[in-house]
Amino acid sequence: MTKVSAFFDKVIAATAPSKPPINLDPENEDANNTATATSNGYPQWANKIGLFIYMLWDKCLWSPFSRTWALLNRWTNLTFWIFASIPIGVLVGYYQPEFATEIQPLGTAFIRMIKICVVPLIFSTLVVGIAGHGDDISKIGKLAIKTIIYFEIVTTLALALGLIMANLIKPGQGVELPPESDNGDANDLAKKSGDISWDGEMFLIIPENFFAAAVEDQMLGIVFCAAMFACAAIKADAKSREVMMTVCESLSQVTFKMVALIMNYAPIGIGASLASTVGANGIGVLANLGKLIGGVYAALVIFFLAVFIPILLIFRIPLGGFLRAMGQPWLIAFSTSSSESALPKAMERMREFGCPNAIVSFVIPTGYSFNLDGGTIYMSLGAIFCAQAGGMSLPIATQLSIMGTLMLTSKGIAAVPRGSMIIMAGTISQYNLPMAALTMLMGVDAILDMGRTSINVMGNCLACCVMSRIEGTFRGPVWREEEIERRRRAALDDNEKSAAAAAAIGSILPSTTQDLHHQHNEKEINEDKIDVIMHETISPASSIKNNQEDHKAP
User: Fold this and answer.
1) What is the pTM of this model?
2) Which of 30, 64, 106, 449 has the CA that lies 20 to 30 A from 144?
3) What is the 8-class DSSP label of residue 218?
4) Tens of pLDDT along 519-548?
């Protein structure tokens, strides 16, 4: 026991801070035992073992881990981890398909958590944005008309590109169709397409009640209810309007904080979603429909280069800044195949990029029903694929007729589950195209959905920037005031977190409380000082400088 105790003494002496020695009486063993016992009542040898274990944990395990974690936090961010989760998810799905399908609930959980925030986020931000226009409701109508015209122009270009690509690469030639007996799901979708009509879409816009629209994820219904509520708030008395604006503003702030918490789980959810997609479909599906999949993704890339880039240049939207702002929303949309999952982050990034709250809260949710660029490319190319797979050669007039049908029926499909497939099924049935080809499309829909969803989200964010530029509010005075308030709240929030951390640590380690409190007081930011800093950093001159920097390559 003496040798063990001596060993612990040497280790502790080398790692622990030195303490004054205890004077022992060599003739009184009982006094020695009392002197060597510490204030917690344990003998000295037990405390030596405990201190040795603590030193082993602190020096060999916790300290290296904490330093490594701090280094990763310094040089990485959420986007890095999302990027890292994508190849990991693909590899897991390819090499362990059974395990990949079992972890699908992890990805589903992420999508569901994001969907929890969608309804309160859209409603609160839209009410604040519209009511923030003041008493001039005509501004809302003018913005809506301009937005719808822009949506129609861009989606028409998307449909035309899909038709051109289908005629160039001919993805349906040489494809073997399954027997007609396997077309049960496709026939069911074709029957559902009969329920989609002008009056049906109108009832999607005007729901029976707000809660029904919220439960059924009817984006148009939520936007309509929020717009009506905001217009009523504008007409109400000043006191009632101020109360509702305060409530909605607080709701939006809390919802954004909730989204920030959920986004910490994004790499796990995204990796699980990709793994389950690859594990369920496999790589073999690329053999039979490789030309179709490659054609769809090539059309999406061409659409980005030939349509999005010129729009950015025409409206003088910083290309580099836009691509950086779209990083996380695009990754989330691509990896989860869910536009709703990317909605909160897309709205947040567009606010930070330079679009005022009124434009963001109206254009992006509306675009989820009227501006599905990736979906329209897929539907036009898929319809021609079905004809080619059945050995049919459609004349140009028929193809233009299909294009017009898709243009009219594709509005509002975001409110319908599997809306793109339902619209395609109805179009195929109307023009007597082989339904068996749609069955093949359904087999690769998950892979194609990733690409078209990401382009949908990017197109809506671009529309938000374009409308801001047309309205003359892109990085203008209104946006600067909103950005000042946002940064002021962020600075105060960080300040409060530092104070709470200092108090928590001080309660555990009283000896360091005064030092931490002193450090916190040195870093404490006065609210008036924050306002001065924000106004200096977000001045018109700094906005011009940021525009020049954003125009550089990302």
Assistant:
1) 0.69
2) 449
3) -
4) 444 444 444 554 544 555 555 555 555 555
Q: Which two tokens stand for residue 213?
A: 């629209």
The CATH fold assigned to 78-474 is Proton glutamate symport protein (1.10.3860)
CB atoms within 10 A of CB 417: 11
Copy the structure tokens of residue 112. Answer: 């569901």
**Residue from 155, 221, 186 nearest 434 by CA:** 186
The secondary structure of 440-466 as a DSSP string is HHHHTHHHHHHHHHHHHHHHHHHHHHH
- Read off the amino acid at residue 372: L
Q: Which residues contact 544 (CB under 8 A, 6 or more apart)?
A: none
Interatomic CA distance for residues 463 and 363, integer angstroms: 7
The single residue listed with the structure tokens 């200092």 is 502
Q: Which range is least confidently modeled, 22-26, 56-60, 295-299?
A: 22-26
CB 320 within 8 A of CB 474: no
At position 46, the amino acid (one-letter code) is A
Nearest to 293 by CA among 382, 174, 373: 382
Distance CA 335, CA 465 (A): 24
CA distance 278 to 397: 39
Q: Exposed/middle/buried for 412, CB within 10 Å: 0-12, 13-18, 19+?
A: buried
The residues, ordered by sequence, that sit 6+ positions from 331 with a Cβ below 8 Å of its Cβ are 79, 82, 83, 86, 270
Helix locations, 60-197, DSSP H: 63-75, 78-95, 97-102, 104-131, 138-169, 184-193
Question: According to the 3-state scheme, what is the secondary structure of 422-439?
Answer: HHHHHHHHHCCCCHHHHH
What does the pLDDT look like over 178-203, one tens digit per residue?
665 444 444 454 444 444 455 555 66
How far is the C-alpha of 421 from the C-alpha of 375, rounded, in Å?
Answer: 10
**Average confidence (pLDDT) over 234-243:** 86
Q: What three-state secondary structure class fits 416?
A: coil
Phi-psi region of 76 (alpha: psi -120 to 50; beta: other; left: phi over 0): beta
